[in-house]
Amino acid sequence: MPDAPTIQTIEILSPIAQEGTTAAIRNWFKRVGDAVREGEPLVELETDKVAMEVAAPASGRLAAILISSGDVQPGALLGHIEPGEGAAPAPSAAPPPPSARFEPELRLSPAVRKLVAETGIDPVGLAGSGKGGRLTRDDVVRALQQRDEPRSEPLREPEPVSVGAVRSKMVPHTPMRRRIAEHMAHSVATAPHVTAVFEADLSAIMAHRAAHQGAFAAQGVKLTLTAYFVQACVEAMKVSPTINSRWHEDALEVFSSMNIGIGTALGDQGLIVPVVHEAQSLSLLGVAQRLQDVTQRARAGKLTQDDVRGGTFTISNHGVSGSLVATPIIINQPQSAILGIGKVEKRVVVREINGSDAMLIRPMSYVSLTIDHRVIDGAQTNAWLTRFVEVLENWPKA
Asked: Which end of the chain is more exposed for a tag (fewer CB within 10 A), N or C?
């Protein structure tokens, strides 16, 4: 660790307001001695929920990096800036990263800049799949895989493998994956998990969606089933308010704000939970607009700290990947419950019509509520699920 500068300097601090567990330094964009401008990204941090950049608090020269890698606590001192304009870069003992030729108009994100520098991939000429043709991290990864694909060679006899040998390769954990693991293990160790499973007939909301999705699309909004689930959660909270709460050692904090997080998969990178804040005050259109905005930005890696901060309840729509039931779905601490939505599939159900039983084919889904049993009991859990299903199955046609 370099000595702290003796001249008057400005501190570079990790954010005090941090959503998620301890952050880890992913990458420094500058080296000691480099000139920096106020507001310019200096270092990239990553928690289990979001990646964020720490900007330079002043213009001048990066005088010291005090923490170059590893975990950092909120408010930690990361380094120092020697204030001034036009400071000349000083030599650094660290070897420079592999060079890559950049074009200014590419406007690469910090994550993409880091990856092309580490791999030596030249971004010029690569086809970008991001907005406006911008390169994404996945574009660079695909180019790297194509570059490293083995060329065809004449067939040769396979080398003998000893009996019982297991072939494998080690895939290093990303900072996000490590923090997700820590967060999940902490939740299981902290809260006794109990899960209740109900079944919901989604005929009413699917009919409503079919009738109104055109009007929503005309306003630039995609109407998804998740928007209905969010509004049904709001109604269910009214009969079991403690579902929307947080356990403290001396009291239970029950929230009037219904800030509902939506688990969003990021492929092999993990998942993130953007939040629909104050859902109880939003219309179906308002919920759909917010969902579209945050899920698109989540998959583009453009969420801010505010987008993932303050959640009081979470929905895990695991059915989009094919599962009927997942249990237990691990609670997103420090919340008290999490809703699981299974795959929607047509099933034969029995309904009473004009006093007689009839077998009908309906779009059905298993819905589960996993609760922290320190906070919530079975009666409250079942009352919440009963109301949730009732809202979905009796959605007005208008």
From this structure: C
From residue 306, give the alpha-carbon distance in Å to each of 254, 259, 365. 21, 12, 32
Q: What angle do CA 203, 238, 339 make, to 5 degrees?
A: 55
Strand, helix or coil at 183? helix
Which structure tokens are listed for 374?
């320190």
Is the peptide bond preceding residue 396 cis, with omega within 30 degrees of 0?
Answer: no
Whether 373 is catalytic: yes
Instruction: Output 298-304 pairs: Cβ under 8 A, ≥24 positions apart.
Output: 298/264, 298/266, 298/272, 298/274, 299/264, 299/266, 300/130, 300/131, 300/136, 301/51, 301/109, 301/111, 301/137, 303/50, 303/272, 303/274, 304/50, 304/52
* pTM as predicted: 0.66
User: Over 70: is that where the pLDDT of 20 sits?
Assistant: no
Would you put residue 20 in left (φ > 0), alpha (ψ -120 to 50) or beta?
left
Using an 8 Å Cβ cutoff, are 254 and 337 in contact?
no
Q: Which of 138, 173, 306, 377 is catalytic?
A: 377
Of 173, 225, 249, 183, the closest CA to residue 367 belongs to: 225
Distance (Å, whole) CA 19 – CA 13: 16
Phi, psi of 18 (to 5 degrees): -130, 125
Q: Are 290 and 276 in contact (CB under 8 A)?
A: yes
Cα–Cα dist 330/182, whole Å: 12
CA distance 159 to 161: 6
Distance CA 36, CA 62 (A): 7
Q: Decide: 134 and 128 in contact? Cβ < 8 Å.
A: yes
Select the more confidently predicted residue: 127 or 33: 33
Q: How large is the greatest C-alpha to C-alpha distance in the chain, in angstroms? A: 88
CA–CA separation, 327 and 243 (whole Å): 18
Catalytic pick from 186, 208, 212, 373?
373
Rounded distance between C-alpha atoms, residue 239 and residue 247, angstroms: 19
Token pair belonging to 377? 């009991």
Query: Number of C-alpha atoms within 13 angstroms, CB side, residue 214?
Result: 3
Known catalytic membership, residue 377: yes
Give mean pLDDT, residues 20-40: 82
pLDDT at residue 92, rounded to an integer: 43
